[in-house]
Amino acid sequence: MIEVEHLTKVYRSFKRKEGLKGALVNLFYRDYESVQAVDDVSFTINPGELVGYIGPNGAGKSTTIKMLTGILIPTSGQVRVNGFIPYRERYEYTRHIGVVFGQRTQLWWDIPVQESFRLLRKVYQIDEKDFRDRLSMFIELLDLGPLLPIPVRKLSLGQRMRCDLVASMLHHPKVLFLDEPTIGLDVVGKLRIREFLAKINREFGVTMILTTHDLREIEELCQRLLIVDKGKIIYDGDIEGLRMKYTLDRRIVFQLNDNIDFDELQSACAFNGSVRSEVMDPLSLKVTFQRDSYSPADIIERVLKNAPVHDITIEEPSIEDIIGRIYSGQS
225 with 262, same domain? Predict the structure, then answer.
């Protein structure tokens, strides 16, 4: 559905000098610098995939999305979405995609929501019956009934985002681009939008690319993750693969029935230096170990033989911790 080959985008920016003297210099001489926002990016996305495209601020996420949607022309490289080259065939191409930008709206500011939907039906030339059926389904899924007669400018951010999602899906697009669709929303608003996206992806097979800083959304929605940093893709795979690649340590917490001598337990279990134990309270022990030295089963077996264990919890590193270390250059 989406093919990206050696995609590059370079911005040429004017370095403006300060002060009156600088202003005079700027009139006769201009100094430019080049900023490489996207650097030789390549990937493919199959029909029906829901892919998270994430990275720190300034990594090139939004620039990539804008080239995929045809808003920007690449400096070099190739993009093909659903058989179209976005920036060359924009008129026909936009009939097959939906776009949601968290900080922008495609609804008309001063007219009721329902009138915006009807205008979009005309723009996309949607069959009246198909329009009514799809709109009715979306209204039910997102509980939009009370919002339809309200002008867009009077909606809250969460209400507007739900309406923008419907507007992006009315014409039955095959690909949906989502650039931070839940930015600024509360917990309830985010949950409702996640449920809607998951249902649309599952039942209609819509291919989706999601950029977001909310990693909970990535965990709950995306089957695949693309991480971009400084314009380059540094990871392409699933979340479990990300944990395996970037995390060495694993943790197991043991809840004990009785007080024991933790030093004796450490000796009895015959752990080597790669295993660290930490007493959390008189009845709790946390064991940290490297995945390439021990398996969880081995650690659990040794502790069970030497201590009265009441409960066991295996702690996996959170996706936030892993991504945070990648962004800060620690991995």
Answer: no
Same domain, 210 and 230: yes
Summarize pLDDT for 182-241 with one digit per residue, the tens: 877 888 888 888 888 999 999 889 999 998 888 888 888 888 999 888 888 988 988 888
Residue 183 within any structural domain of the chain: yes
Q: What is the CATH number of the domain that holds 108?
A: 3.40.50.300
Relative to beta strand 50-54, strand 224-229 is: parallel
Q: What three-state secondary structure class fits 185?
A: coil
Give CA separation, 215 vs 108, 182, 197, 227, 236, in Å: 31, 12, 15, 12, 16
- Got the DSSP string for 264-299? HHHHHHT--TT-EEEEEETTEEEEEEETTT--HHHH
pLDDT at 14 over 70: no
The pTM for the full model equals 0.79
Residue 266 sits in the same domain as residue 312: yes
Spatial separation of the C-alpha atoms in residues 216 and 214, rounded to whole Å: 5
Written as one string, the DSSP assignment of 23-58 is HHHHHH--EEEEEEEEEEEEEEE-TT-EEEEE-STT
How many domains, the chain? 2
